[in-house]
């Protein structure tokens, strides 16, 4: 019972710290967007960017780490199918609308202020910004095994190439 209270406190503190970092990072963002090259060639659909904000070992839960991250989805972008290993995942929509689907489930749209959870081992087969003109942003919390990768993308299928390096 005490362990649950401490873990809940760490989760709340991590979310608060992430919110503070996000608001100050937004204040530092450039006011003018970068212009595209004049002779731009059609490019593959953009993907998301995951930026870890806080990583904290859970001292009352041996071998577990709390990580918060911001996931930015430019307009029209998506995430490649992926898994988060043995991590428990909580995703909260900070901005925009995101469509998400786990294997074996129907797709759902989540709007600013809504959230979803992913159990350990879940296969995330669809995550995309539903807007072609506005960005979307998530706060994602991972409770993972210390040292594990936070995200592993599926291997490209034959005849398909990944747009990420």
UniProtKB/TrEMBL annotation:
Key words of the record: Signal
SUPFAM superfamilies according to UniProt: RmlC-like cupins (SSF51182)
InterPro entries assigned: Cupin_2, RmlC-like_jellyroll, RmlC_Cupin_sf
Chain ranges passing through the membrane: none
Signal peptide: 1-25
Stretches assigned to the Cupin type-2 domain: 70-142
The protein, known as: Cupin type-2 domain-containing protein
